[in-house]
Amino acid sequence: MTLALSGEKIAKQIEKRFPEGVIESGADSLLVKGELLLEIAAYLKTAPGLDFDYLTAITAVDYYDYFEVVYQLTSLKHNHGLVLKARCYDRDNPVLPSVVGLWRGADFQEREIYDLMGIGFEGHPNMKRIVLWEGFEGHPLRKDFL
């Protein structure tokens, strides 16, 4: 069984390198600033003792006031995991940096989030719909979708 690392403990490590990067931390999750997501994710992947070399899943949640993108990270080497979160506050054009360059498994997952929630991922190599057809109006997993 994978051990869930403390978000509070990891936040202290991250704040040494990215002083303004962590918004909040919990028992097993970490919320970071969207504009620093890629740099913090790269740090989590390469930092000795963390080595989050596997992206288990990405999903997104619509909280009306903002979107939250949730990344489930795992270290196969150390058998531990962490939930990393970032928020988008712009409903008209929500964008986060793509993590495909760090974890290739993010490719289709980011495209699915783009297609169904309308969150774009800057730097994604092929940001286009994956579930619905081109020309489909809107994003059906948004709470304001009619």
Question: Mean of residue pLDDT?
Answer: 96
Highest-level CATH class? Alpha Beta
Give the number of DSSP strands.
8
Q: Percent of residues in beta strands? A: 25-35%
User: Which spans of ≥5 residues are poorly predicted at pLDDT below 50?
Assistant: none
How many separate domains make up the residues?
1
Number of helices: 3
CATH topology: Beta Polymerase, domain 2
In CATH, the architecture is 2-Layer Sandwich
Set out the fold topology.
Elements: E1 3-4, H1 7-17, E2 22-25, E3 29-32, H2 37-46, E4 54-62, E5 67-75, E6 80-88, E7 95-97, H3 106-117, E8 120-122
Parallel strand pairs: 1-6, 3-6, 7-8
Antiparallel strand pairs: 2-3, 4-5, 5-6
Structural account:
Strand 7, helix 3 and strand 8 form a beta-alpha-beta unit. The mean pLDDT is 96. The chain is α/β, with parallel strands linked by helices and 146 residues long. The protein contains 3 helices and 8 strands, in the order βαββαββββαβ. The chain has a single domain, classed as NADH:ubiquinone oxidoreductase Nqo5 subunit (Beta Polymerase, domain 2). Helices cover 23% and strands 29% of the residues. The strands form 2 sheets. Strands 1, 2, 3, 4, 5 and 6 form a 6-stranded mixed sheet that branches.
